[in-house]
Fold EmrB/QacA subfamily drug resistance transporter.
Amino acid sequence: MAIALAAVMLPISVTGPGVALADMSGALNASAASTQWVLNAYNVAFTAFMLAAGSAADLFGRRRLFLSGTTVFALASLVAGTAPTILLVDLARFVQGMGAAAVLTSGSALLAHTFSGAARARAFGIFGASIGFGLAMGPFVSGLLVGVASWHAVFLVNVLLGAVVLVLARPLPESKNPGARRIDLPGVLTFTLALMLLALGFVEGPSQGWGGVVTLGSFAGAALFLALFVVVELRVAEPMFDLSLLRRPTFVAIIWQPVSIVFAFAALLVYLPPYFQGAGGAGSTMSGAMLLPLTLPVFILPLFTGTLVRLLSVRMLLAVGPAVLAVALLLMTFTDPLSSRTGLYAALLLAGVGIGLAFGVMDNAAVSVVPAERSGMASGMFNTLRVAGETIGVACVGGLLLTSTRQQLSGSGGGASGAMADDVVQGRLGSVRESGGEDLVDRAVQGLQHGWSVVYVVLACVALAGAIAIFTMVRDRDLDQSSTAQDV
């Protein structure tokens, strides 16, 4: 129960700020770049410390790390919810992401160690459903909180949830890997710097120019530290990212599969609410509700993991999911939130079905293809790449959306500017209206819709590539344990 509730809590911390971005940026007088770091700071820390958390869970104990991570997560949420400046929010979100990494990795490792066979399949089905529930209800609940209270409540609700998780987690059994001896600190440092520089490049690209010194320097630094990370992992006695596991094509495909899904999913959850609030004219509560066709299938479908596996097999579920998502994203290029909401809801529903098909089997598949004593590391590797997909997706889509919108607006003339692109992407059409009236608002919305069309096509290509990789690389015989799943 504690792990399931934690799995609900973590997605809320990703999707909630997306609904609150417009209110938050206005209240704290924040720029588009600094507001985007509210998202990126959490995602970078979440991703960067995932591998270290997996190693720490095996070394110090999975229950101990679960409790410690939940405490850090709740305290950082308290700071973010009461912060008077955007800088303090960003810093608190980074610490919150560190706690989230410990919670997710140790939680899934606890499940893998505690259950086996069909029972483990059921446990991970509930785990996936809990994540789906958090994703499904996160935007809606956060929209309600913003509408009834303020953006502060989006963070403060996690303080309450964290306290409940701590109480429920006390009876959990302790487990650790007796062969683990230390944490790979050089690996943590090089991986963290690589990811932060990669995110920095995508965030600064629209304002500094994609060929600018800051942008290119960030990408070059990210490549350098990533190469150093590989060198470190090859030389240390106990790497946190065991590159020898990458010799298994099935494991490689499975740990990369989430990237093809969450790359799009996280970006849609974060940037669609401001789009709905601005171009669609929706309030914060309505913008959260408009995401329900996308998120509800992610909650519901993992509940039927056993039945779906018997019908399609794990391999087919992992491949069909991103393929369906790719089709849905291409359909979304023909919709807009103002004039064709029915078509938009249908496309979002199809996208949710594609994501939900894979969510119930991804975690179990990742830990089923490695020995049980290495479940912490396997979980860390899998979740690192899943959250890395979210991090890169949010950062990349934010930069791509802003750049495409700016280019379209600059081509339309009529006083369009980079500042106006910032406002329309963040859903602040009031500022655009004050500077140029309804004609300028119409041009701004058209520019934003063009930007979204570009984003949809790029995300569809990423999802389709993931589907092809899964279908060609995964071997059914390596997933025999996963195929024993029963109905949850």
About this structure: Confidence is low (pLDDT under 50) at residues 480-488. DSSP finds 18 helices and no strands in the chain. The first helix runs from residue 2 to 27.
